[in-house]
Queue: 3 jobs
Job 1
Amino acid sequence: MQRHKIAGGAWCGEGVITPQEQERQEPLRNGYAMKAIPTEYRGARFRSRLEARWAAFFDLIGWRWVYEPFDLDGWTPDFLIKGEAPLLVEVGPCSNRAEYESKSVKATGHGRAALVLGVGPDFEEQHADGSPDGFTVASAGWLVGEGSTGGHAFWYLCKRHSIPVIYQDAWYHYPCGCGWSEETMSEWDLANRFEHWNRAGSAVQWKKPAA
């Protein structure tokens, strides 16, 4: 497992349920009653504001997406990310490993790489490694399929295509398809990720209808 130490405990993002969840309101999660708010963005009507926010985030980082691209057996992916190494995406109100793993079940077994994304561009998981504080894994989400048994997926920057990419243990990165090397890949700054995420939130922010 790749280790990423990050500083601070700041978190941003909003938690809303997705189209595959109950339409109106689900039981209390983390003390809040959560519901999906249909949101329009770039001519598409998303079933939740969280989905729309991820679409805006994809635009900001240069990912080409298709919303609800097709139906698979028991699962309709929320997004298809186009590229040399296409990536399916499932969005949910996930904020810990158990929630990411649970959300990934229906995305598994389709012979395609699928990424589960949650309430923000990173989620943190504490691990014990013998040191007093252990270490923190900060990942983009949970990647399954195409040879992966499921695990943390990490953000990198592809220097060749000038876009952020997803990496786990495969020899190439999603969605660019480039192989790993120090010449082609570099770390993606945490602050920059959240700057894009905040801008995406502003793009889909609820606005009072004009009188």
Job 2
Amino acid sequence: MNLGGRDTRERVVEAAVQLFSRQGYSGTSTREIARLADITEASLFHYFPHKQDLFWAALQERIRHIRIRKEVWHLLQQREANPAVVLPQVIELLVHLAIYHQDLIRLFLAGFIEMRPPTEHIYRRESGPLIQAISNYLEQAVKRGALYDMDPAITTMSFTAGILTHELLWPLFGGAANTNTGEAVVAHSRYWLNALMPGYRAVVPARIALGRGTVDFPPVVERRFTGVLSSQRTVCLRSTATKPRAEAEGEGSVVVAAICDGCPTVPSRIEEKNHESHHRADCLVLAFGFSCHRDVC
């Protein structure tokens, strides 16, 4: 662990992050931190008079690197947004944290075990708004029938805690550490959408454009319309199509363009009765919250 090239305080904090996150609070001495930072223990106390001060500085150092994309906040505030669009975006955020910010998760776990009250305060302050936004969205989705009847608070904590700790615990059971964000997003999204969303099943491969890249995203929802889809565009797919084409465009957007062999243009606002009158019976109607950028589906 080479901490050279940084100023003294930065080296001390980074050394504290690395040791506290791996050895816990009680298992790490200030002498070890000073040695890793390449300073004397007396010099360390010049910057941080108490060991606890150093732990909180280490935790805040990792917290400040976390950025939640505006698209995620925007989707969670849209109470009518399709869960098949919203949840993968939230899951992508959690997967990114689980894979690339494991030091932060370990520091929180160490704090919960050894210094619970102040750690809880920091956790609520930093994570509370996101957790509450997810829970509020799930509650609204349940009320309008987009998700199964379930407790939104329990569900929120179940999938957030499960995803965040999965990458830490899975290697203990013989699994390989996952370094592919896209594959992890697909796996977790498939699991949770199957568990929470009525009528959900994999129909056709698609691609999902997340905040940090575009990945293959097999699950698609097969559902029938109920009324006017004022905020959604629709995609039509022939059940006999063997090689539907799926593309994605735009950061944070999800786009499906499937070739339907002559199926007419699908307008962005359409009532069920009008749709049924001009689409053949061998087309599956996929209401997935996608924005289709093709003239024909």
Job 3
Amino acid sequence: MILRTIVLAVAIAFTVNVAKATPIKRASKYIGFGERSHTYELKRILGVNPRRVAWCGYFVSHVLKLKKPIGRARDFLRIGRKVKLPKRGDIMIFSRGRSRWAGHVGFYMGTTYIKGRKFYKILGGNQNNYVNIIEYPASRLLGIRRYKTA
């Protein structure tokens, strides 16, 4: 009976911690997942085959627990609240190439300067085909959104 009570208490504590986890904590547990090395797992959580589609938006949608996934990165410019100064965990949307529709989306982790140029450290999916943290040039930033999760 005591063992059962302890197991139940641990299960409840785990459930509460997962429910209260920030987007950064939820996203971080996937760091290192690649579209080739973790195809099955990513396909299961994203609802799409990561080898066939640009999946950064699907990853952010999964982390934010959106009921309807957003596939296109630039569509994230319409959710949450627009902010000027980023906080850790904010959604950042970037341009990709010269396209008016293509983009990239991920979570803000920090700011750094490389050879005098400003970069944002972004935790996201489909970054060189993996979930990881990499730097994006500030010059490509389209917008910053703050989204409250459940």
